[in-house]
Amino acid sequence: MERYTTRDINSISLPKLPPDRASRNGSEDDGPAKASTVAEVSAEAAIPESAEGTILALAQSGDHHAFAQLYAQHKRRIYSLCLRMVGNAAEAEDLTQEAFLQLHRKIGTFRGDSAFSTWLHRMAINVVLMRLRKKGLSLISLDEAMEPAPEERPGRSFGAPDLTLTGSIDRLALERAVANLPAGYRLIFVLHDIEGYEHNEIAAMLDCSIGNSKSQLHKARLKLRDALRRSSRQEARR
Amino acid sequence: MNKEHNKQVCEKFQSELPDLIGTGQDIYLHPHVQSCELCRALVDDLMTIAAAARQLFPVEEPPDALWEHIEMALKEEEQLPGKG
User: Quick check: is A1 in a domain?
Assistant: First the structure.
């Protein structure tokens, strides 16, 4: 097998699309929040369908360089997804590796019924869910398994609205708050509000009811609201 | 309307919120949201959080060494019996 170094991967340059072609669920074109090299950004940019089709076909035929290109293009999205779902960097790396190994094994079965990024994304979610099942998070009885302890539950909103989140929310504060959510809440919130899945899709993935998915999402948002309000209060005191 | 009654109405509305939000209807048209400042603030916050979450693009970069690990694992898989 021909090997490619990290430098090779990072220097893979793919043409960028105009911003209006970059879909939310495709490869992102909004630029990273932290410093990245130009090569890294361009490697993650959306590529024309024809070019992606060519790379994909080559990867399906066993071309290692093409597979490396797919990795370069999708690594951040898959790693970010894993990280947000499990909230742990080491585990996210492991899951990202497993997702790309799965991709390598199954890429020949991709028939183009959906966008490749959607297919890969779903595969990565399945890898994460399998891991969570192995770790004992029952996805069959979400009502019990995903319900946090009483002290972790979000409070209802009674009393004066002393501080609202009107306007903007600090991205880092939100990322932190999401990472600190109990596992069950985080899973639903990431899948619905960040990744854009519908409740019926989440219910199918997690083998739970649609009502349960809605309820868990609502509780997750309430919990985030509590956390963000606390964070705003702390900021205000400084 | 006394305070206790208000609390009960708010409690009922908030217990129905997950379904109300899930329907995709304009929740601001709900009579309780139009009349209750507290629940309107809650809905505002939940909508703000959902909108902010949609802006959370993948920004996390996996470590460079990860590709090397994947390559090694691919190589090992290819050397398994029955593989090319």
Answer: no
Residues A53, A126, single domain; the answer is yes
Q: Would you state the structure tokens that stand for residue A178, as one six-digit string?
A: 């999401």
Is the residue at A206 inside a domain? yes
Domain borders along chain B are 3-58
The three-state secondary structure class of A198 is: coil
Give the pLDDT score at A221.
Answer: 94
Query: Are A127 and A147 found together in one domain?
Result: no
Of all residues in chain A, the one with the smallest CA distance to B56 is A194
Which residues between 214 and 233 in chain A have a beta carbon less than 8 angstroms from any beta carbon of chain B?
214-215, 217-218, 221-222, 224-225, 228
With both helix axes pointing from N to C terminus, report the angle between A49-60 and A64-86 in degrees, rounded to the nearest 10: 100
What is the distance between the alpha carbons of residues A38 and A53, in angstroms, rounded to a whole number? Answer: 24
Three-state DSSP at A112 gives coil
Q: What is the pLDDT of residue A132?
A: 87
Domain boundary, last residue among A102, A134, A166: A134
SS3 content of chain B, % helix, strand, coil (to 5): 70, 0, 30
Residues of A in contact with B11 (CB under 8 A): 156, 158
Contact (Cβ atoms closer than 8 angstroms) between residue A46 and residue A19 = no
Q: What pLDDT digit, counting tens, does each position of B6-64 carry?
A: 788 999 999 999 888 877 789 999 999 999 999 999 999 999 999 899 888 777 899 99
* DSSP states of A31-83: --SS---HHHHHHHS---HHHHHHHHHHHHTT-HHHHHHHHHHHHHHHHHHHH
Quick one: A25 and A107 in the same domain?
yes
Query: A111 vs chain B: nearest CA distance in angstroms?
Result: 22
Q: Is the pLDDT of residue A32 over 60?
A: no
Print the domain residue range for A183. 142-237
